[in-house]
Design a protein that fits this description.
The protein is of the alpha+beta class. Helices cover 17% and strands 50% of the residues. The chain is built from 13 helices and 38 strands. The protein has a 38-stranded mixed β-sheet that branches. Helix 11 packs across helix 13. The longest helix has 42 residues. The protein starts with a helix and ends with a strand.
């Protein structure tokens, strides 16, 4: 029983404790939020905000855990509106007893943890920094600082998954620290202490256009001795790494009112040349256990001085290796006679006085030697460069001495002997008087398969000559697939393009016997239904500002072969302009000007083509656009001249979007024959109109003018003549092959059958022999399934009535008493002449109707089945 009571008491006590721990946060949460906000506002010149605050006793009992979610720190002037810091989670730990302190008493924080913090540190051109936001504290009468809302009495702190960016706008220096993991622990409450720290990050560092570190992995495990009285942090036991290169630090950093005084030395504890390979990022250096080295590699340096607003510490960093070599066990060749001598020095403490001397960077592969030397001064201002390059490299040996990941092997011989001396202002301003450059670079027998291509690129020979103002491409001879290319030209700003992000300016001349466009374009890949088809369209490089003069005996594009192609291509501002392009095509000549621009989100083009004496049927087969503009051309053979102006949008594969096209097409037919059987609509109308033989239609000198917009083609009315029949065409169609055309045939009455001709022969009135009948044919439906209708029946009926009326009027005017008998005799419906006029209207009406039926019957007698309908569908 006693045991049950004890267990019951324990259970009740635990329940009460848990309930208290669960309820207490609600009692103290508002108090802590107020203290945090008050403390931040009283100590920082910035706008601090956070989304929410959580307080928990259960999670870290017997400690209280205060979590601040999504905290931001936004600058005031002169960086107003800039986000200095953004922290996803900030966790503060403290003793539970701190929750019960009265108003005005400081709450001691034992642990701080930051996760996913982004710090954006800036020093602007005026020397102001955005991170100097801590307010100066007022001193009490006794010289001690007034009590604040929060008292930092740390035992541990941690920063995880964070990023720090520092930009010095004056020197254009950028430091990026990503994937930053750091923690420290120790008793930080006395006058002196030790802090055990671990740090790991990816570091990138550059000044101007020069990149010295790029995502280099840095690690440091260090025990720091801290003197709080003098604000001095001394490196004791420590081990650091830059990628896999071990580094030891000695010295201290002291915080002063003017900045930080630094007195540090560093070195690599070993001296093996393998340490040099360790500098290279692991992804490129591969497994260092698989490499044999000889010779040494030493890194050492000293940094001493004040890091303040106006100065940096003086420093001297040296890297040296002499007569070294390395060979990967898995590869067949070695790199030997390696000499490295590099110094990075600043003696004055002024950043602009920093200089870099690469006194030697030499090596040998087999018998091929390569030597380089460079000297850089005034790195942060108008950088001075003096560089020399001399050597020969067999490209095939690169993958035999170093584990390079290549889809296929390189080959070819690269030779160079270049001297260059300049300052960056001269390069940026194209001041060639201050640029000294000379030498040559050559490449022979290089074979390479570019990514995505199916044909290898074989550069037989390429030679560049360096001058102060330009680089001359004296020769370039290459083959890719069936395409041969020979070129020469001039690059006007070679150094400006490679060193200061200037556009590449130059003039190039290209000759080719056969140029197959598909050889120099990456083939399109088929995409399934589950693949996103919203492909980014190809862009014309924005850095190109050049003129290309091109000639080719043959250019093959899809199913087209252009002969004797010549013209000029000007590329600038993501726009390619074609000037005076000419070619032989479709047994004729084509000349065109135009442009393609990819500056906007959707590529656009405009083109002005002039075609002379081209074969109609070949052009219809070869040009899809012509098939859409003039589908009737499929039924034509012959020659034409034409002009075509069009503009519109381009799809991702640079083919025109037909529905976006706007333009005009004017064709002058020189000679042409019409093959009715090749066009369904013409075949239908030919079967209906026996007076017209389309095969004999003369189209010579016919002019057709059409315009198109939004996928609709409209033809300006034009006239043709078949013998003495005038034909007028009007209407249009869509690019989806919907037809809406009308053809009006002004047919002389004599072609409408022997009965009409006999009736006209009886007429005496002048001009009746010139009577014509307009017969309208309508073409609707689709190109492959057209519908054709005519008003032939009604036209002939009206004509017959007209002729009968004319004849009647003639008889009345002649006063013939037997007019009725004569009229009846003409149409074969009377057996006995009558000297008097018809006595009743019904007799006349019956005779007219009978005459019309006889005329139509004779006119349509070649049809298999007479029909009263005017429409015939395919």
């Amino acid at each position: 029983m006693k045991l049950k009571k004890i267990l019951k008491i324990v259970a009740i006590s635990l329940a009460i404790i848990i309930a208290v721990l669960a309820v207490t946060p609600y009692l103290f949460k508002d108090k802590l939020v107020a203290i945090v906000k008050k403390s931040l506002n009283e100590n920082l010149n910035a706008v601090v905000d956070f989304e929410s605050v959580d307080l928990s006793l259960l999670r870290s009992f017997p400690q209280a855990n205060l979590t601040i979610n999504k905290m931001t720190v936004v600058n005031l002037e002169p960086f107003k509106g800039d986000t200095l810091a953004k922290v996803e989670t900030t966790a503060l730990r403290m003793s539970i007893k701190e929750l019960f302190k009265g108003e005005g008493e400081a709450i001691a924080i034992n642990s701080i943890s930051l996760d996913d913090a982004h710090l954006n540190l800036i020093s602007n051109l005026e020397g102001f920094v955005n991170y100097d936001i801590v307010k100066e504290t007022e001193q009490q009468a006794d010289g001690k600082e007034e009590s604040a809302g929060l008292n930092i009495a740390l035992e541990r702190y941690e920063i995880s998954n964070s990023r720090i960016s520092y930009l010095d706008q004056e020197s254009n220096m950028l430091l990026n620290i990503t994937d930053f993991q750091h923690n420290g622990s120790g008793n930080l409450t006395g006058d002196t202490s030790e802090l055990d720290t671990n740090s790991e990050a990816l570091v990138s560092f550059g000044i101007g256009e020069s990149q010295y570190l790029k995502n280099n992995k840095v690690k440091l495990k260090a025990l720091l001795g801290i003197d709080f009285e003098s604000s001095t942090y001394t490196f004791k036991e420590n081990t650091g790494y830059i990628n896999a290169l071990p580094i030891e630090l000695n010295g201290y950093v002291q915080l002063q009112d003017e900045g930080q005084f630094i007195d540090l030395t560093f070195r690599n504890p070993s001296s093996s040349f393998k340490d040099f390979l360790a500098i290279i990022p692991e992804a490129y250096a591969k497994n260092l256990n698989d490499v044999e080295t000889t010779g040494d590699f030493k890194v050492n340096g000293a940094i001493k001085g004040l890091n303040g607003d106006e100065t940096v510490p003086a420093f001297n960093i040296n890297m040296a290796s002499n007569n070294a070599s390395f060979k990967y066990y898995s590869l067949t060749k070695s790199v030997e006679d390696i000499t490295i001598d590099v110094n990075v020095v600043n003696e004055s403490g002024i950043l602009a006085d920093t200089y870099v001397d690469v006194n030697a960077f030499n090596f040998r592969i087999d018998q091929d030697k390569f030597n380089a030397e460079a000297h850089l001064k005034s790195l942060t201002e108008n950088m001075l460069v003096d560089a020399k390059l001399n050597g020969k490299i067999n490209l095939a040996n690169l993958s035999k001495v170093y584990p390079i990941d290549l889809d296929q092997e390189l080959s070819g011989i690269l030779t160079a002997d270049i001297n260059s001396s300049f300052d960056m202002n001269a390069v940026n301003n194209n001041d060639y008087q201050r640029i000294k450059s000379s030498g040559f670079m050559g490449l022979t027998n290089m074979v390479y398969l570019p990514e995505g291509f199916t044909s290898t690129l074989n550069i037989k020979n390429a030679a560049l000559t360096f001058n102060p103002s330009s680089v001359n491409i004296s020769s370039f001879d290459a083959v890719i697939g069936e395409t041969d290319i020979k070129a020469n030209g001039t690059i006007n700003n070679f150094l400006g393009f490679f060193l200061s992000e200037q556009d590449l300016k130059g003039v190039f001349n290209i000759d080719s016997n056969k140029f197959v466009v598909s050889d120099v374009l990456v083939p399109e890949t088929e995409t399934g239904s589950d693949v996103n088809t919203n492909v980014e369209p190809t862009k014309i490089p924005g850095f190109l500002d050049c003129t290309i003069n091109a000639k080719a005996n043959f250019v093959v594009y899809d199913n087209l072969t252009l002969e004797n192609v010549s013209g000029q291509l000007v590329i600038k501002d993501q726009k390619a302009t074609l000037n005076n392009m000419t070619s032989s095509l479709f047994d004729g000549l084509i000349a065109f000007n135009g442009s393609i621009s990819t500056a906007s989100e959707v590529p656009v083009f405009d083109m002005d083509l002039n075609l002379q004496n081209i074969d109609i049927s070949k052009s219809f087969v070869g040009l899809e656009l012509l098939q859409n503009l003039a589908p009737i051309a499929k039924a034509l053979t012959g020659k034409l001249n034409s002009s075509l102006k069009l503009s519109g949008d381009l799809s991702s594969d640079f083919t025109p979007n037909l529905r976006s096209l706007t333009g005009n097409f004017l064709a002058n037919i020189l000679t042409a024959n019409l093959n009715v059987k090749d066009n369904n609509a013409l075949s239908l109308i030919d079967n209906q109109l026996k007076f017209l033989d389309f095969d004999k239609l003369n189209l010579k000198d016919s002019k057709i003018d059409m315009n198109f917009k939004d996928g609709i083609v409209n033809i300006r009315p034009f006239n043709l003549k078949y013998q003495d029949i005038d034909i007028n065409f009007t209407g249009g169609h869509s690019f989806r092959n919907a037809l809406d055309y009308k053809a009006t045939f002004n047919v002389p009455a004599k072609y409408l059958g022997s009965e009409i001709a006999s009736l006209m022969a009886q007429l005496k009135s002048s001009g009746t022999e010139n009577i014509t009948v307009p017969v309208v044919a309508s073409f609707t439906g689709e190109l492959l399934k057209p519908k054709v209708s005519t008003d032939l029946v009604s036209s002939v009926s009206n004509l017959t009535k007209q002729l009968v009326e004319i004849k009647k009027q003639e008889l009345l005017s002649d006063g013939k008493t037997k007019a009725g008998d004569i009229i009846s005799g003409i149409f074969g419906n009377t057996t006995k002449p009558n000297d008097s006029l018809p006595k009743t209207d019904s007799t006349k009406t019956n005779n007219v109707e009978s005459a019309v039926k006889d005329v139509l019957g004779g006119l349509l007698k070649k049809k298999k089945k007479p029909t009263a309908k005017d429409t015939i569908s395919n």
